Amino acid sequence: MATNKKYWKGFDELKESPEFVERKNNEFPAEVPVEEFIGSEEVSGFNTDRRDFLKFLGFSVAAASLAACEKPVIKSIPYVNKPEEITPGIANWYASTFYDGNDYGSVLVKTREGRPILLKGNGSYGVNRGAATPRMIGSVLSLYNEARLKGPHRHSESGCMPISWPDADSEIGAKLTSIAGRGGKIRLVSRTVISPSTKLAINTFVTKYGGKEAFAMGPAVADPIEEVLGTPVSEGGQETAPDIKHITLDELSYNGLRNANKENFGDGFIPNYDFSKAKVIVSIACDFLSGWLMSTEYIGQYGETRKPESGWMSKHWQFESIMSQTGSNADQRVRIKPSEEGIVAAGILHAIGGGGKAAEGALGTYCELVAEDLKSAKGDSLVVSGSNDVNIQMVVNAINNHLGSYGKTIDRSTLLEMGRNNDEEIKTLEEELSSGSVDAVFFYDTNPVYSMQNGEQWEAAIKGCELSVSFAQYEDETASACSYICPDNHYLESWNDYNPKSGHYSLAQPVIRPLYDTRQAQESLLVWGGEATRSSGKDSTVFYDFLKSTWEKYGFPMQTDYPTFSEFWNWAVHNGSMDVKEMPAAEQQAFGGNLNAAVSGATSIESHPVELIIYQKAGIGTGKDSANPWLQEMPDPLSKVSWDNYVTMSPSDVLAMFPGSLTEEGLASNSEEIKDYSAWNSLYIGQESPAHVVTVAVGDTTVKLPVFPMPGQASGTIGIAMGYGRGAHGGGEPIIGRAAYYTEKYGGYEKDTAGNLVAIGQNAFPLMGWQNGTTSLSGMAATIEPLTETYPLACSQTHHTVMGRESVVRETSLGTYLSSDSDTYNPPFKLSVIKDGKHQEVPVGEADLWDSHSVEHVGHRWGMSVDLSSCVGCGSCLVSCVSENNVPVVGKDEVRRSREMHWLRIDRYFSSVGDADRNAWEKDPTTNSFDYHQMEISQASPSVVYMPMMCQHCNHAPCETVCPVAATTHSNEGLNQMTYNRCIGTRYCANNCPYKVRRFNWFNYQGYKKFNENNPAQQEMGRMVLNPDVVVRSRGVMEKCSFCVQKIQEGKLVAKKAGRPVQDGDVTTACAESCPVNAITFGDWNDDSSAIRKSSESDRAYQSLEEIGVKPNVWYKVKVRNIEEDVVVNSNDDASGHETEHNTH
Amino acid sequence: MKLNILTPIIGKQGIWVLLIFTFFLGPVRSFAQEGDAEAGAALFKNNCASCHHPLKRQTGPALKGASQRWADAGESDLFYDWVKNAGALLASGKSARAKEMESFDPSVMTPQAVNDSEIDDIVAYIESFVEPERPNGDDGCATPYLIEEKQSSGKWKWLLTIACILSIVVFATAGVNRRLKEFSDEFETDEDQTYMEIAKDWLWKNKVLVSLLGLVLVLVALSDLGWRAAQIDVMEGYQPSQPIKFSHIIHSCKNEIDCKYCHSSVEKSKHAGIPSVNVCMNCHRSIQEGTYFNKEEIGKIHKHAGYSAEDNAYPDSVKRSPIKWNKVHNLPDHVYFNHSQHVSVAGIDCIQCHGDVKTFDAGKVASVGEINELEGTTKLTLPVLTMGWCIECHNETGVDLGKNDYYNEIHARLKKDPELLKKFKEDDKISVRELGGWECAKCHY
Hints:
In chain A, 28% of the residues lie in helices and 19% in strands.
């Protein structure tokens, strides 16, 4: 049992650092920023004597009273011609599709009076089955980014000047014609195109200027589209002039995987993975829950296998270096260095008897254990690798082949269209560009100057081209090097179609008229390709007509459900996606390829003392969303740091690097910042404890970043998140969006010595490597230099602690769950009472201090349950909550003061088993000698529990009894209501809340200058995203989760209008409907047949902190891990296995 | 301004056209052989009236004789197809008359869900239609935009003038008095005493009376202040001027247009909705001249709609613009109010909150007194649009659990707690309040 476990959110909590202790006793540090008012130069310059002051006062009072007498006249402006489908006050939902080259998913867009305000996964149609990542949900805010270009631009001597579309068209057209006429080189570079119509548009463009079709066109009209538009014809080579080519360039390369399949099966495909069928999942450094291929689909499939009620659970092994989102959910997690990935793969292959090469030492033992699991679930297993090394992928293919996974968990007849970039081809382009032989280059939805290892060279080379055009929405790194920028529409303003994998198609429809004078890239291509002429500006239907005709020609004959095209088309747009008839299985080649060479290649990867991994953060991804304040403020699921990237290192490595925090000299030079330099100090990250800064060098490239000690990271590895440091090329202008730059403490941007804005974080792409013919994001040899500087990080990991009440979370093993009754793993709390003269144990519920609320019988009682077993901590619920409830963005400085406003936070608990031997050292780390191995035992490889924590809507709410003005009260539907306009801001309620879920509005976030750069409500466009049904709270009031009361009221009204009782599904919360793994259930608990009632009565259901008797309306379900009884095994093995590794330090 | 009932009504026939939306006076004689004109009247009202008039051209042509014209063209059978789906008939190319019609007006009628016999009924009604006779003079409606002379301001002026005169008289008498005194008391000793001192002496002598009087004054001032404070944000009687002299009296009283024709989202949405300009144009395309302001006010609508009356068209060259009305009923941002909840679920009549809108021109916030005088309203005491007024009504109003199946479940659950149910039923009704209508988060979120 997990009783000997200690749960902690961060090292400072584990170690009870003085700062932590102080902060946990003072949840709302009330430093009033008087300095700002009194200390500012303007104010101190005033010469106000008492008399003047009284005059001012008198005037203000008079002015205020006068102003109060006259109510402003408010205008009410109806439409001139009201669109038929819009009824003011009622939301319209439209099906659409999100694809940014990284995430793909069918989505539903909520619009109010024509403004998109919320996005969620489409639960009825689409492969992602309702799943949406934080980035997808947040993308609705990116639509309103004011940095978007307002029209086409041309770079000239005098800078970046706007031009008109006809001018741009004629100038670009003329140049193209002249280049093509003399047989010049034209290159169209884009992200992986999965849109059939876009492929056709590209073909039109390419053929117009004499090129061969970029995407092969078949002759048969009735054939399915992917047969028509197969793989790009890339191996041209012998074209006669002009030389025009389409090249795919993504930030993330799946080249290794495609090449491995080419070797093994003769075709460079990516097969369809089905995690829902996998009883054993082995992932070798593959973050398949966040960012890897179709992670939006995999996350739901994975969630299905994590519900123990079905009698089985998948067994998830993860071998990885950094603690990834996926790894943190694994049952067994083994820390390896990137150079060991091949050794592990080969070791597993050997252990299952498929050849390979046995791994040595502890890794060998792990491989044996993995093999046992794999063999016991033969066929129902899935091994995946995130590596871009062809050898490793081939070994992984061999494992899957040997276990018979093909045809079961891996489907070779359904192929993914995503991840098509060809690293060799890009390299060739790079050479062509730098040699100056390319005359014209076009960039569509790709940003190589930022995302390539040698972005600077790209920039110079692009500037050298005669014609360079970017379709970027912003003046991004690549666009600012191009001679023309022809801004594309945001995807919510565009028509599009997608074919993410064979047999599945989806459509994207515009949900708002283009905000600016932008033009869809496909339309530009069609116009330049001579296929169309631009018609009526924003209302142009050029690409829509093209798309529709494509579907009439190819899509309509593929189906038999609808007799007429218009009917088919209407339903296709309405549903947003469709599956078409099964493809005739392509002739499948048997497994082949030179396995021995692959094994020896995979096992002989050079290891380095410090290996770097460039990883994706859940919020920022590859950097397209750097300017999105919701996503910047979303704490990273694991580190809980927002607004920055950093170097993650194993805690023991950090201690080794900064022994006793800093040297005496270092301390002397930083005496202001660092007062306490106990050994643990270097692990604390807090408001007063900044992080240490290091420089990381890979080859000649260096970055300077703070260090974050990450429990669970393999020693000898460092991780840096990609996607940061964007927009720094703009100098003094926030050219990719306001939230992408550091701000000053009291508003305004931080500027460097040259007066340029400072972009948030550092770009990690220049540290990328090249390994075995493909780009590589992990395993680069890095050197790391400690500096004496420090840097503050906004880390919320120990904000809002629950004061050491560890009954907050409960977990158990699958064995215990299946074999024992719920009293073993989910024991009810009992109170000791004296009753009838005897000592008795009674359930907590029997002892009541308060009269009970009559929520049991009157109407509804809203309840929620959260399954900790399936929750993967992705953060979608958090962003969805922000979007639905107008939760203000507060910026880094305020997050550092623990004043983040998120109504829902995801508590990430590390858990480790207590170790008696360590106690002496823990008590006095400065005098007791320090041993890395002791650290390794418990905290280096902790297990992780994610717990979404929001207002628990206690029926005996402690907050309600202390409110002096009855601003927080209880409803007869069980809601703990917060009435903002009654609140006077005493904050008693927050002090009395055992869950620490109440938030205080320290500022007028939508007006105060400090939040000007970050808060979308302060921007003309940004405020269009606000939900008009939810009030924007003002300064001085408390706020908290309301269970989305606006949605409850709306759902009830729907039922009332229909004259029927509320059914399951009528009422749901933003978090519940955005959860990709359906971990959150919401509904009417008083309805005996409701899902929430059943969920709350499950054996695993418990109430957090039940012993304090507040009777919450939220139930959690015990986390079940598919592990052996004894949780300690993992850590012990782990420690012994890493002895060799530590010798490197 | 003087009331002149007789002037402009005669001769301004446009206004009567609106009558067809709601009521059809005059004898309806059924002389069509097949159709039933009475059934046709209802069908016409529901399906045709928003675009057609039997005798006048509106969005669509005048309909009297339409079926005959088709018969004359030898296409009497196709007439039915034309009504049901004009576009399809046009596309089929079967009908020569359809072609002719298209050249007359290229906008094609939307398909109508009516069958042949219903078309016969409609035709019967159209053919039997005669312009209803004008009721003679008094239709029970007030006169629009009759500005009565405001008395109150005059009163204040009079009072002020009287006060001034009185004070002058008082001072004058006092002055005379003093002079007289000076003359008569020339030889007395306390001649140095000023008025102030005299007043002080007097006050001191009568201190009990003065302090009582002072107390009363303070109390009056305080209570007045309190009363005034209670009036802050009370919007009763608020009737802002509007950019167009729109009159509810004309539309709602004289022409009996249903509130929901213009405020059409009242049953669906939280907003009742202010009609968009195209809704105004449904009628004002044919009614181009008003009774009171001739073309001036209706012309403003045409201008906003970008409509050219001469061409009976919306030329592209004319810019369209929304009408910027002044909002009358304004709730603070932190209040959530949903019209559809009250109108379509609770079945509350508009007058309960908005008063007898038929009796005023521009929209105004009716006072609770006015509303209480109306028949069938719940009588309340607190000012309209204050929170007290809302919750007072939530307390007074009962919810009929049997009327809406939504409450079945709730009723069943309530029965599990008989004590509570008994408590609820003490006043013979289960009020909105008892079901949670006084809870903060019902309106504030």
